[in-house]
TrEMBL record:
The lineage of its organism: Eukaryota, Metazoa, Chordata, Craniata, Vertebrata. This is Ketimine reductase mu-crystallin. Belongs to the ornithine cyclodeaminase/mu-crystallin family. It comes from Turnix velox (Little buttonquail). It catalyses: L-proline + NAD(+) = 1-pyrroline-2-carboxylate + NADH + H(+); (S)-cystathionine ketimine + NADPH + 2 H(+) = (3R,5S)-2,3,5,6,7-pentahydro-1,4-thiazepine-3,5-dicarboxylate + NADP(+); (3R)-1,4-thiomorpholine-3-carboxylate + NADP(+) = 3,4-dehydrothiomorpholine-3-carboxylate + NADPH + 2 H(+); (R)-lanthionine ketimine + NADPH + 2 H(+) = (3R,5R)-1,4-thiomorpholine-3,5-dicarboxylate + NADP(+). It comes from the Eukaryota. The gene is Crym. Its EC number is 1.5.1.1, 1.5.1.25. Homodimer. Binds the thyroid hormone triiodothyronine (T3); T3 binding inhibits enzymatic activity. GO terms for molecular function: pyrroline-2-carboxylate reductase activity; thiomorpholine-carboxylate dehydrogenase activity; thyroid hormone binding. PANTHER family: KETIMINE REDUCTASE MU-CRYSTALLIN. One of its GO terms (biological process) is thyroid hormone metabolic process. One of its GO terms (cellular component) is cytoplasm. It holds the Pfam family OCD_Mu_crystall.
């Protein structure tokens, strides 16, 4: 797939488009499944100002949005973080989650155990490698799913009541990471209603009702409900790339 994600932020007076390719590698590949480039344009006249590494921006901004969702939606007392998947997004989520929150234990599971072990040995803090997704999830307070799964790998019967889940993978209308039980028995938050009902297999195929967009929670127009079991379905929005690219460009310009 080739995706083109243009956006303009009036608040930042920033204009960008992101070009992102996605190739489903049947075998483990040295080439990432997702590759991206962000073009930052002068909003007043359209001149190209910068070409930025869209893969880094995508990884960082996606994890940042998950962290914002977690800040609002996670239970009051959190001890265990679980990450399902060991790719690029697993690293970016680990970095920001361990920077912003305090967990007594971090667990990881990946379909290929060697990748999970490599992850555990290369990050800064202790990580427990689990032999099954169920082992990793059981008793976890915050769960992050960043997999290439096309059918559910996380099941409602495993999830601790009151846990918060950031569902980041399964960005196609026919792909799933979460089963119907979890989707229907959780309070569902999304980044974009419009995108979720056309792009997310977890939302479309389960028939789960969307309670709120994350922006509504941030603005205070919808409650966060951290006492409930919550799911944040993240698909990503072009404006997140725009704001991130402008932030990087402004920081670079100030340094120069």
């Amino acid at each position: 797939f080739l995706g083109v994600m243009p956006a303009y932020s009036a608040a930042d007076d920033a204009l960008t488009t992101k070009l992102v390719t996605f190739y489903e590698h049947k075998k483990d590949s040295s080439v990432p499944s997702h590759q991206a480039t962000v073009l930052l344009l002068d909003a007043s006249n359209g001149t190209l100002k910068a070409v930025l590494d869209g893969s880094v921006i995508t990884a960082k901004r996606t994890a940042a949005v998950s962290a914002i969702a977690t800040k609002f939606l996670m239970p009051p007392f959190t001890e265990v973080l679980c990450i399902l998947g060991a790719g690029v997004q697993a690293y970016s989520h680990y970095d920001i989650f361990t920077e912003l929150f305090t967990f007594k234990e971090v667990r990881i599971w990946n379909r290929t155990k060697e990748k999970a072990e490599k992850f555990a040995s290369s990050v800064t803090g202790p990580v427990r490698v689990c032999s099954s997704a169920q082992e990793a999830v059981t008793g976890a307070d915050v769960i992050v799913t960043v997999t290439m799964a096309t059918t559910p790998i996380l099941f409602g019967e495993w999830v601790k009541p009151g846990a918060h889940i950031n569902a980041v993978g399964a960005s196609r209308p026919d792909w799933r990471e979460l089963d119907d039980e979890l989707m229907k028995n959780s309070v569902l938050f999304v980044d974009s209603r419009e995108a979720a009902v056309t792009e997310s297999g977890d939302v479309i195929l389960s028939g789960a009702e969307i309670f709120a967009e994350l922006g509504e929670v941030v603005k205070g127009t919808k409650p966060a409900l951290p006492e409930k079991t919550t799911v944040f379905k993240s698909l990503g929005m072009a404006v997140e790339d725009t704001v991130a690219a402008k932030f990087v460009y402004d920081s670079w310009s100030a340094g120069n």
